[in-house]
Specification:
By secondary structure, the protein is α+β, with helices and mostly antiparallel strands. It has a domain of about 220 residues: Dipeptide-binding Protein, domain 3 (Roll), CATH 3.10.105.10. The protein is about 25% helix and about 20% strand.
Length: about 550
Amino acid sequence: MKYAAAGIVVVAGAGAGVYYATRPTTPPTTTAITTATTTAHKDTLILGTTDSIETSLDPAEVWDFFGASMIYTLGAPLVYIKPGTSDVFVPALATSWTTSEDGLTWTFQLRQGLKFSDGTPFTAESVKYSFERNIGLAMPDGPQLGLGYGDMIASVAAPSEYTVVFTLKAPFAPFLALLAFSGSFIVNPNYAPNTPGEAVQYTEGDARKSNPNDLGPYLLTEWTRKGGKDYQMMFDANPNYFGAADGYPEAKHIIIRMYSDSTALALAMKSGDIDMAFRQLSATDIKDMQSNPNLKVWEGTGSFIQYICFQEAIPPFNDPRARRAIAAALDRRELVDTVFLGQGIPLYSQIPNGMSYHEDPFKELGDANLQLTESLLGELGYTTQKKLVLDWWYESSGHYPQSADLAAVFKAQLERSGLIEVNLHAADWASYKTNRDAKSMQVYVYGWYPDYVDPDNYVQPFFDSVGGSWLGMGYSNPKMDELIQEARSITDPVKRGELYSEIQKIMVEDCPIVPVYQGTAWAVTKPDVTGVNLDITQNMYYWLITPGS
């Protein structure tokens, strides 16, 4: 059937080959490609990154990009988003599905004969357990709580061994997209205890005990930390993976090495120590590597955004005029061109370019509109003799690209007004998150990759004062809450568009968050590595990558 609420196309009842055999119709562009004539390939992919596991590998707790990508590598959902698309859903653990006319009941038929890595059979009870367990844990920073799984799912039933039925409390337009999200992946019940408030955590020397995921293309065989920081992870092909019969994963082993910063990562890529570099390379390094004949640079659709947050408990940012004044003083184009060398685009809505219902409401405030900044701050009593002095925080450990450069440009732009003085503060990712939770940062910058590919995922987690409070800004607007809930439940795409238009108008009126830029997705590999896919989901499908010779 086709589920038209958000332009979603469903391929139901199709076999695994639809997902695996079909490569993206529009692959990522590459530069400096050297044609490989060798047909024999090694079986190990060595990947470098500056990322690390933020919390754990438990779908009930993970809400960061790298943790989610590891869940995609180790686990499996009911449905996948077909690589190279944003709205085509294909079978994973489910083989087919139907939905009731009122959109409240979703019925899935499951693959038969699958087993978890310890030999436990996969059945509908496994799905029921996973969802009930993940929702029931109610992890404070987890996606089930933050995205409101329990608010939308009334029950999960297993009427037969290979049939699972979800009953929703209200129609939810992006439900299939939610099921393809890492927070909806199925866990092995023998490694995922159901103890409220306790997610599976890292256990030194025991990769299996550290990881509740299963049924995916790989098994985690090593997870090493040094000095409390992630150092290396190793994966072996899962013989029980449902795509194994079709020859997947391509690489039978993966080694992921964590580097301290983008400079060290770029050096490892240039020296040939790794086969692939993914997150975070600097814009300068990417530009340099594009002219290197010994490397292949992949460019793809970006859905990563960065935005400025205001702590409304710290004056004057309890007043929207102060927040709007900051937004008006920014120059997004200058930022993109200077910091990222044009490798990104200015962003004027929390809903990114290329996403359904995107508009540009922040263009109303302009770029480098210092006249508006002066007017708004003047209303609050600020002058060139009595400046607004603010503390601006940025992340310093490589979790976001070029954060220090970004902060320096922000400081210069704001201080051009003559009315603002910016004190910059840096914190590594762990401290940054602690400061966020303590509500101690006056102004700070965050980034976002989509959980599920729908505008709801760029709105509800940020502006819903009930379910979107994870950023700790103190923002609340009952009208915004009402519009968000209506937009989540309505299935009419025209009406949804009207609601998101109104939501985006309130975004700029209240200005609790200022969207700044939308990134482009980049990866660098050795010349004969193939199968890299960079699409709007931002999932790195490691099992489709063929290592070089």
